[in-house]
Amino acid sequence: MKTFCVQTLGCKVNHYESEQIAALLRSRGLTQTDASHADLRVIHTCSVTTQAASQSRQAARRMVRLPLLTEPTAHLTSARACCESQGCVNSRGETSHDPEPREADILLKAHPSPEARSEIQAADLPAGRPRVIVTGCWATSDQSAASAVAGVDAVVSHHQDVRLELDRLLTLWQGEQRPVPRRDPDNPRDYVRPHEPVLEPLRKDEGWMIEAGTPVDQLTPHIEPKLSDTVNQNLAGNDGADVRTAPQARAEFLPRGGADDPRLGTTALPLLGQRQTGRQRAFLKIQDGCDAHCTYCIIPSLRTKLWSKPVEDAVQEANALVVAGHVEIVLTGIFLGAYGQPTALRRRQPQGTDKPLSALIDALCTRVPGLRRLRLSSLEPGDLTDELLSVLRSHAQVVPHFHLPLQSGSDTLLRKMNRQYTRDDFLRMIDRVNNAFDRPALTTDVVAGFPGESDEEFNRTLEVVEAARFIHVHAFPYSPRPGTAAARWTKQFVRGPVVNERIDHLRAVAADHSFTFRSSFLGETVEVIVERDAATADDAPNISASASDPPTRHGRCERYFPVFFNDPRPRPGDSARLKITDVSPEQTIGQLTTDH
Question: pLDDT at position 514, please?
């Protein structure tokens, strides 16, 4: 096993954790490559909505179906060609009789001759195919579904020590230990290599982690789930101590603990010190876990333990990221405002002058030379206190851009959502931010169509969006996630067409605010960090083919909106000063100044 790839679905926290997983694999001597050439394929999944869980399942299936590493020999090639000509299997190993076939099984059934059987089995041995690991939130919420994907070799949840489990699997698969042989000689997928010792199988009471080399559908009958077959079968009553986790990895870890404090999930993965893949802004995870239990959110059941990164670790990591070329860092976490706190429930947080998040920001801004920009991924009214605003204002590195999730502007719905603020709390926070910063860019999240949302309640949300003048609204439809309280309120669900209309309305309002906001900078000079070419950027504008000299470069300014320009000199990652020369509803155009 020499190469690996990591595919990521979901939020900034997931992308950061994928970088950690990649760092761990590199430390074990593996080289990162594209998925089709990787010996080890890791899918770091999301499960925040039903759609996200479905996408995670699809990603695992696609990863398994990528080409095998072992090249087929003459008999296997001949058998596959014969099957394709007869229509029983296509070039991707798919057949109408089996929704998730394994190509070797299909070929064995169609070509039982000893010579063909020998070649097919040889090509299907684990030594000649990539290993596939599913990690992340979907691996935690839907373990059986992840394990049931044919070709998945291991499923590692947040309730385990991810570092420990990845190390164990790598040790097993890199030849330091050998796979457990199968016991059924009549099953072509069972094998024993003559040069390998026979190991005892894992005991059932050691947990659900599948054995290396074990076909998933053979092992799943032996799993003994604690609950009946539901989408979130492993969650209820699971505090992280009832799965196969090292005893020392079960305790809670908070900033005041030492470096040797035990940790759960991904929190024991290595600090980052290399440039993060494919981005100019580096994510720095400082917090994990949530116990606030918003009624639509499954995350508190998946990331049950609150954890905060010690200040010294955060400073060390930020310094390494800046040295690696990231001059902008985005602080991220599951509940950023719970940094340094024993709970995300504000009524239970200790009262006093000790504000760990303020202290961390002060340390990063004063002890990380070369840090040009610092962003905070998400804050709520209970987080943005006057004290925190004062600290944020006192450091030039903190950019005037804040993502402030609203979810709803209706007090009735906010109570049903179990949010920890009211409509007035939110509006007061907006006023404090606007008074503290010059033209801050404000963005938000809104759930459209939450159970029971009437036209009147949606209009209350629109009123807040208008008052805050958000330049971007991440409006998304409510998705009933099994295992959450709101998923049971089926009689109050809002029809799809109504939800789509509300989302379109919210986005249109935000687009108008964005145009007005960006227009206020016309003729001014902003600093951007140059990103990849506009032609390949996700947020590149739709430029007419007839447009003369369309912009080909872009970067994000302090207030986060992208500015497009034409000049070959700045490279991705460079800072550039651009004078804004044109603003349209679709894009902002700038020209490189002479003092760049």
Answer: 98
pLDDT above 70: residue 224: no
Structure tokens that stand for 309 in this block: 């990164």
Rounded Cα distance, 506 and 448, in Å: 9
The residues, any chain, with a CB within 8 Å of residue 436's CB and separated by 6 or more, are: 389, 392, 393
Q: How far apart are CA 145 and CA 138, in angstroms?
A: 9
Q: How much of the chain is in helix, strand and coil states, percent to nearest 5?
A: 35, 15, 50
| Residues 149, 43 contacting (CB under 8 angstroms) | no
Question: Does the pLDDT value for residue 202 go beyond 50?
Answer: no
227-254: buried (b, 16+ CB within 10 Å) or exposed (e) per residue?
eeeebbbbbeebebeebbbeeebbebbb
**398: phi then psi, degrees, rounded to nearest 5:** -75, 120
Retrieve residue 512's tokens. 């108008």
Q: What is the pLDDT of residues 227-243, one digit of tens each?
A: 333 333 333 333 333 22
Give the chain's radius of gyration (CA, Å).
Answer: 26
Q: What is residue 580's three-state secondary structure?
A: strand
How far lies 72's CA from each of 78, 104, 119, 153, 264, in Å?
A: 9, 11, 8, 22, 42
156, pLDDT greater than 90: yes
- pTM of this prediction? 0.77
**Beta carbons of 168 and 178 less than 8 angstroms apart:** no
Which amino acid, one-letter code, is at 137? C
Of the candidates 243, 347, 247, 258, the residue with the CA atom closest to the CA atom of residue 304? 243
What tokens appear for 464 in the block? 């807040």
